[in-house]
């Protein structure tokens, strides 16, 4: 139960340490970010309140209200990691890095939490290394199985980890990408890691970095699937709470800025100097400081006002505007800013499962990218801004026809 303390401020208990979490940003009523419905099936659409706060004890930034996991990750979950050439390359490189941890092991075993369509595990499989992926989204899991990969459709937690340990033995590497930040029941995750990981094994995960979100005002990284917003400092505290130690960190450019964390059993590996350096940097930047976080919230409000002004002005001028990339995070932007079909006529996307449907909450039609190329608009709002370089390179014809891109990270601007 949330407690109120002053206008717009409330407190809940931290999902990591049980400390007090104080809200600093409220993005209002939001739909499930990856729930793309048929045009005539929006009457019973699910909505929840999207607000975020910071723990005064362990500094973990997290959502005030979690959404049930079964509502988000299910048979028809539409995101496929292999859809981007940049991400395919990233995960191939990541797999090779993970294999370095298994080089001296006999019959090594690699487990991935949230393996999606197997984009990373494919390289592990091709190297002849024993593996298992956890992927509760049925159709996505089947896409991984179709590649010859071993995949469980259960959720990873203490119970399922214990089962795997009993049949497969200890894991040398447990890896997750854009998954651990999704999971409020983090104690069960670490108990599962404790049960499954070998004595000298490593738990490696990468997720959006709060430092980048604050610096870039990329508030669209906040949506139902992202429950935690990690920093090196908060992950160090989280690992220690469950008997583990943060031993390395690495900045990643993907998805608008992420951090890769390497965690080991306490005392089993010497922490890299990069950990202390980054934690010191985070303290200087004040990433857990309520004043800094409230300033971030103020900048979010400015982005909303500026984006609405640009789109309303273009509509009044009779200019055509569409959006590019029916991303999960675009649900936050569209619903928080009130962007519907009256401002953006459609959004194009390469994902077949989204095409012919409408965006969550705001019900903008989703069309294939061919629609974009058949008749270029005057402006395109780039929801998939984290893939801007790849998209703009692919869509040079749009610029050649005089089209212009609208971006809102780190501020609203037209290029």
From TrEMBL:
InterPro entries: Methyltransf_Zn-bd_dom_put, Methyltransf_Zn-bd_dom_put_sf, MeTrfase_14, SAM-dependent_MTases_sf. Residues 14-73 form the Methyltransferase putative zinc binding domain. Signal peptide: none annotated. Residues 253-410 form the C-methyltransferase domain. Pfam families: Methyltransf_13, Methyltransf_14, Methyltransf_23. PANTHER family: BLL5978 PROTEIN, TRANS-ACONITATE 2-METHYLTRANSFERASE-RELATED. This is NDP-hexose 3-C-methyltransferase. It comes from Nocardiopsis ansamitocini.
